[in-house]
Amino acid sequence: MVRHIACLRGWHPALARAEIAALLPEMNVTRLEGRRLLALAGESEEMALAEAVAVSSGCQAILCHAIVWPCEGEATIDRFMPVILEHLNNHPRDGTVAVRAWRHEGRIEGVGPSRLAQRIGGRLHDMGYAIDLEHPQHRFGVVIDASSNTIACGWMLGFGDESDGVSSRKAAERPFFKPVSLDPRLARLAVNLASGPVGKGATIDVMTGTGGFLIEAALSNRIAVGLDLDPMMVEGTIENLEWALNAEGKTEHSAMVLTGDATKLTEALGELGAPICGFVLDPPYGRNSQGSIEPMALLESVLASAQEVANTDAGLVLILPIHPMGEHPDEPIPSRADINLLHGDWQEIEHALRNAHWSVQNRWVEHVHASLSRLILHATIAPQD
Ligand SMILES: C[S@@+](CC[C@H](N)C(=O)[O-])C[C@H]1O[C@@H](n2cnc3c(N)ncnc32)[C@H](O)[C@@H]1O
Fold first, then answer.
1. I need a labelling partner for 18 at 20 to 30 A (CA). Which of 132, 314, 346, 360 fits?
2. Are residues 64 and 18 in the same domain?
3. Residue 8: CATH number of its domain
4. Residue 1 pLDDT
5. What's the 209 CA to ligand 1 centre distance in angstroms?
6. Mean pLDDT score of the chain, rounded to an integer?
């Protein structure tokens, strides 16, 4: 079976793993020893893999038909070079090439990315490849992972950048900003986790506020709808959406912003002409929320309404502020872990999800600061009797 390796960014590998699994549902995704390396097993068109990397928030690159080599130091590299050469012979490419090498999780003594890139580049040159460092048609990616003392390499999809190009679009720079605005990196990840592959259907940002999720869904070529009860938020979100699309030079998109009630989605959304495959939900909370009704009753109604309009294989991502419970970047939190919400009671959330026939798949925690963390919850439609 074909096996590729996904290389994850360091921000939250556990969430990035779930994101890639959602974007590539046909692949079997397993964590390798290094927390930022994932094995992807199965058959998938290279175009589908490339699209997953291009829209993802947490994945730096996919190394195709990758090889993984234990690396203790410089001496191991001499033994690795013939293996790389054989790999290159087995997987030739047409066109110009370059090597991109980088480190994950610290250093392996005596093994540096520049030196390794030069050595592999030299072999590629000897094999007759034209090297183009600026705009190569193919990049050969090499990751030196110090957490597992391994090197993974293969022809690469994506650019291997630690910075995602998503978090550089700071929410505070948008024309319409409120402190509730979501960080684009998390918003993009939530959209992908909830909705799966881009062509699957529409993503609904049910209580869009300043358009955090909507913008990320629109920029990743999704059919995207942002809905808010407050006309001022709708106006501001339209402004933010236009600004973001302009900034990325995007002239065509399938995004819209509607004024409407998230507890009455059938009415609010009308005929979309596409199945709804993802809901992203950052509800109002606490005493100062602009909600139409009390926050827990609102959430319960929205979950039920979303279930009514959802496609049978739809996903939902709910984000809630919680009291800090330590950092958990490597794994989801155990299903029995106590969650201490900033507003309200966790049992009530569980009850609301169950009542509305949403089945919780996993929960993760993102540490924000000393007095705030976030719970990121992924649910899918519960099987009906
Ligand atoms: C926490 S904010 C969302 C913030 C958003 N994620 C962002 O990035 O700006 C919650 C939003 O829910 C909206 N809202 C409250 N009740 C609603 C309802 N019944 N239907 C639709 N929107 C509602 C509020 O107007 C508010 O803008």
1. 346
2. yes
3. 3.30.2130.30
4. 64
5. 5
6. 93
- 282 CB less than 6 Å from ligand 1? yes
Examine residue 319 and state whether it is found in any structural domain, yes or no.
Answer: yes
The CB of 217 under 6 Å from ligand 1? The reply is no
In a domain, 254, yes or no: yes
User: pLDDT digits over 187-244, tens only?
Assistant: 999 999 999 999 999 999 999 999 999 999 999 999 999 999 999 999 999 999 999 9
- Count CB atoms within 10 A of the CB of residue 294: 11
Beta bridge partners of 41: 3, 28
The least confident of 22-36, 121-135, 274-288 is 274-288
The mean pLDDT of 18-37, rounded to a whole number, is 96
224, 205 Cβ separation under 8 angstroms: yes
CA distance 76 to 6: 23
Task: Give Cα separations from 295 to 85, 209, 267 (angstroms).
Answer: 60, 15, 21
Same domain, 137 and 94: yes
For 248, the token pair is 């990325």
For ligand 1, whether the C-beta of 262 sits within 6 Å is yes
Whether 222 and 139 share a structural domain? no
pLDDT for position 99: 98
pTM, two decimals, is 0.96
Question: Do residue 127 and residue 15 come from a single domain?
Answer: yes
Looking at the fold, whether 90 and 134 belong to one and the same domain comes out as: yes
Q: CA distances (Å), 292 to each of 48, 100, 235, 273, in order?
A: 41, 52, 18, 28
Range of the domain at 100: 3-158
Closest residue by CA, ligand 1 atom 22: 228
Check if 235 has its Cβ closer than 6 Å to any atom of ligand 1: no
Residues 190 and 149 in one domain: no
Two structure tokens written together for 33: 């020893």
The pLDDT of 351-359, averaged and rounded, is 96
Task: Count structural domains, the chain.
Answer: 2
- Angstrom CA distances, 66 to 84, 289, 321, 351, stand at 10, 49, 39, 44
For 221, list phi and psi in degrees, rounded to 5. 65, 30
Distance from C-alpha of 367 to C-alpha of 185, rounded to nearest angstrom: 14
What pLDDT, in 10s, does the model give residues 100-119? 999 999 999 989 999 999 99
In a domain, 299, yes or no: yes
Distance of CA 227 to the CA centre of its chain: 22
